[in-house]
């Protein structure tokens, strides 16, 4: 610095300065080496001080030199001269013309090569003066939109400039627009700039825009490229592709590092990002980015963990976070997600404790994806967590964890083998049911015989535990030992030894007839509680060699303890016999077909009026006899349902009829036998001590035995099928999925049979309503257990707590079950169309009035069938497995069946969206025939499940219209009573939510119900309802009120809050627009429409006065965001005052104009105290109306106001010439901006 000062003084004193110095300097730098030395810093030789002076810094002509060198490439002369020249501008002590310098630098950016542009832009913050930063920032913002090559230097320069809030928002918006198209390597810089210095008021809006524009799918190379690397012939090409993948992953990692820093050090970013995700309602709006950010926040901010868990659970329950989205996150961004592994493990453990099936399924999927995607340490932690769940003692955790381990051992056997030591701890668990034992020993046996050395240790432990269980005297332990031994034999031999199997089969074939079958005879010897009678014989024409199942004698001897074979073994032994026979004869059961049609030794089952005279022992004996008979028929149907012989098919249908008849009798017996515990039908769990007794009286009412039996009989006659046997499901043998192939048979109702097939009624056996009802009820029960719905909002299924009654079903995966149901869709559609036609005919006959009366029993039976059909469809299409990519073909097959009903032969090549649309319209056709409000509710839920793949705009309108139609329909039972009850209210609650959520204007919909439906209800009779909304009655009003208030609150919360500065900014824009567009019109309209013009200006005065109050408010609260808008706003308001004066002068009314001084007030209208004394001294009083402005001589003009925007503000009063001067046309407050 001393050298520079001395040199400057010497040059200034020289007589030839500056001409000789400049010419000498120009000749000196013609030598490029000397020029380079001038540009480089000097290293001090002695300690006298630094001589790092840059001689060239003394002249502004550097820009001309830079222009010259920009024409050459960087490497032309071996030195980057433009960079060296631009660097000199950073150290200039002063600039003669900074404006000119900046203009030349900006011009150089437009013509220079990219490297030089980069150097100039990054140097601008050090070169610019403070007054130039806003102008240059706008130039850089425009340059940012024009090209993508300078994104990084521009954003780097902008981040170092001191910008006001408005300009920063403008520049940030420019950066936001390039997010979708920016290069991947530049994306972290862009996101960092957007999140930099974001304010709390703008954070939610900014992050919401960033979520919409930031798509991680474009940041990852397609998986097809990764798969094709193996096929590349050139190693150079393969290594190049791998390099691109690595670069892509590194860029994504840098992106999330930027977000992580913002989340950690900017509190508003973390909370606003959670809020932005929470505000998203559409399923399609949620991306992989949201899931990763939630994991990032959970891992980074301990204060937001509870909120993060809550939001994530809510999104999973609503179906917004499907498992496919999580799979994409783990597969494509495992490098990023691995850092959040502790949070992933904690969330998975938490989700497994949830009561919601979708959340539990999501947690189990997190375990599987973490095991597959991460390293050995993470895999060990996953296995340890799963084993902890197994040993926790919680049934749900145990089942889910075993399912996860089963999937892992199937997909990643070699990986899981490393941690077999942890898994084998589960061998020593003693409290497991058979289903759990099967899962556990499938896992252990697979690991034990995986041809690895570690497997031998597990084999030793398994042999030890099996010997222990088999030698135990506890039946449950012995049962576990048998199951475990069978799995061990299967893995050791592949399957059972043929000789052993032959001996076993021979013993089974000989023992079963001797234990359970007898020759059919008219009389049976012995003394029993009831007389023996042969019933349900389908082979009456075969008198020679007829057989019967010796059931009643076996049950009687079992009750007395005098039999070696228990009747409980009848159904299991028959199942084993038919499986063996089918295996030996390629599926044919002709060798044992006599068991299909043979009768049972029972007793007279005409129990009507006889139960009251029976003792408790006799009633319990009768109940047990019926349970054994029903379970026998169920196993017979399981065995012969797939046989192709026509006679066998007819007998199977007859056995289904026998089952429905026996169930009616059993229901009556159970109602008369409270406290009865049936014999176990399956052996997968400990026997129950008691079961809920059948409530025939209904909730809250008590009846004695006779009244209860009579009430139940009326229920059965009224057609309430199967409801009284729901609590006894675990005591029935499980129906196999193959049984439902019987649904391919047609449905013949009684009316059709009488009208069209009366001559063949005794010869043709068809699937009737009662049998269809029985099959559909069981199918729905199975699907609810195994097919987990995507969200409670769509399908509110209760979660099954145990696997009792699902032993065979649980051995199949949900996908296998879904495939079975898809194969049944055609017959299910046939049955549903039959139901539609039946109820359409009933409705038409009712409208015509020529029907003598509705058969209530038949109507309710058909209505229940319709309900179960809709439930079956809903269970299938709401399955969350359809959201996974691997099940897309299965979903397409299911939709194709429905679409085929509308467009036969045209659906093979339709797109998935077209199939969804056709399926939606097909199901929508059933809206006119639904017989009950609950069926309407299920149909609505089914359509939502179909439509949300995805939900298009027209589907949303259809859903709102359909829900409103059901709400505006009167629902009456066949008996004439209006539908009501808890089920009705629950369905009404959901259906009303669907209507309001899908309505175009939710506030208008709520207003219509409140202004139309509620007054109609108030004016109706005591038991009446609204005529427009018949579902709105005094009983359902609380439901309507609760839903409308909840939806109203949610709707109001979703309205985005405006920024405080919006009112000032947009108020100014309105005033400016009024001045530009409206005032010229008023100039020429004043004479002809004086009153209208005066009224308009008077109304506008109210708004301008409020804007004036906002200016005072900004001063009191020192709100920078508002204060920045005050000068321009004041200027516009003052322009308005004098523009009105100009209008009056144009119309020769200038004498009607005065200017008055108004005091400053805040938003509440209170006077600002700092101006109070000034107001008192001036003697001016503020008037609230346009008619009372203080009169001041017009010639004073601006002299009558206080200077500065913080002072008083003038008011105008314009009066017409014909009116007194005190009558003003309008007024406005205004003040000039402070200089």
TrEMBL record:
GO cellular component, one term: condensed chromosome
Chain ranges passing through the membrane: 55-78
Subcellular location: Nucleus
GO terms of molecular function: DNA polymerase binding
Ranges annotated as biased composition (Low complexity): 1210-1222
Compositional bias segments (type: Gly residues): 1196-1209
Region (Disordered): 681-706, 1171-1235
Keyword Ubl conjugation: yes
GO biological process, one term: mitotic intra-S DNA damage checkpoint signaling
Keywords: Isopeptide bond, Membrane, Nucleus, Transmembrane, Transmembrane helix, Ubl conjugation
Source taxon at top rank: Eukaryota
Major localization class: nucleus
CDD domains (UniProt xref): FANCD2
Family of this protein: Belongs to the Fanconi anemia protein FANCD2 family.
Protein's name in the database: FA complementation group D2
Lineage: Eukaryota, Metazoa, Chordata, Craniata, Vertebrata
